[in-house]
Amino acid sequence: MIIDAHVHLYPDKIAAKAAQNIGAFYDLPMAYDGSLAQLKAACQRAGVAACVLCSVATAPAQAHSINVFLADAKTRLGWAALCALHPAMAPQEVTAALDFAQAQGMVGAKLHPDFQRFCADDPAVFPLYGALAARGMPLLLHAGDARFRFSNPQKIARLLQAFPTLTVV
Predict the structure, then answer these.
(1) What is the pLDDT of residues 41-72, one digit of tens each?
(2) Sign of the alpha-carbon dihedral angle for 90, 93, 99, 105
(3) Torsion sign (Cα): 70, 71, 77, 82
(4) CA distance linking residue 43 with residue 45, whole number of Å
(5) CB–CB of 52/81 below 8 Å?
(6) Would you say 140 and 169 are in contact if contact means Cβ atoms under 8 Å apart?
(7) Which of 9, 10, 57, 105 could form a disulfide with 84 if both were Cys (CB 3.0 to 4.6 A apart)?
(8) Could you tell me which residues are beta bridge partners of residue 51?
(9) What's the start-to-end Cα distance of the chain, in Å?
């Protein structure tokens, strides 16, 4: 069984724009528009049986609506999903997001230091990491973009030293 462990998915009304923004961020042409229809068709052509769905919250206020969308897509498809978090979320917002995620069967969380513009080893984000570790929820963390210093290997190493029980992908 082939599983794609990192798939971005967006609501149809913003999918093309979101995909274009990611393409612009990485200076890469995007082959797909980020919609569910294109994802399903691409998976069928490639023989992918399941995916881990994710998205990035570019502001704390976006996290809940993203997570509602991902939870619904996860349920409809029978695939896994990671909840979207933002490093500037207040502790009670993180708790609410993780409560919702776990109630919906989401398996972990996703952050993107370079896109969200925070240092992976910033102590201000430690409560979020601690909340994930306490729940046994893994963190998918984009890392190593040479254009930025937000997620270089030294910062990831400091994060892992501070949270040795947190699973970081």
Answers:
(1) 999 999 999 999 999 999 999 999 999 999 99
(2) negative
(3) positive
(4) 5
(5) yes
(6) yes
(7) 57
(8) 4
(9) 20
pLDDT, tens digit, for every residue of 127-163?
A: 999 999 999 999 999 887 888 899 999 999 999 999 9
Token pair for 49: 């049986």
Q: In this predicted structure, what is the pLDDT of residue 128?
A: 98
What is the residue-wise DSSP string for 24-71? HHHT---SS-S-HHHHHHHHHHHTEEEEEEE---SSGGGHHHHHHHHH
CA distance linking residue 124 with residue 104, whole number of Å:
27
Return the number of other C-beta atoms located less than 10 Å from residue 115's C-beta: 19
Beta-strand ranges (E) seen in the chain are 2-8, 48-54, 80-84, 108-111, 139-141
Amino acid at site 137: M
- The fraction of the chain above a pLDDT of 70, given in percent, is 100
Q: pTM for this one?
A: 0.92
Determine the number of helices (DSSP H) and then strands (DSSP E) in the chain.
Answer: 7, 5
Say what the pLDDT of residue 20 is: 86
Report pLDDT for 97: 98
DSSP code at position 125: G
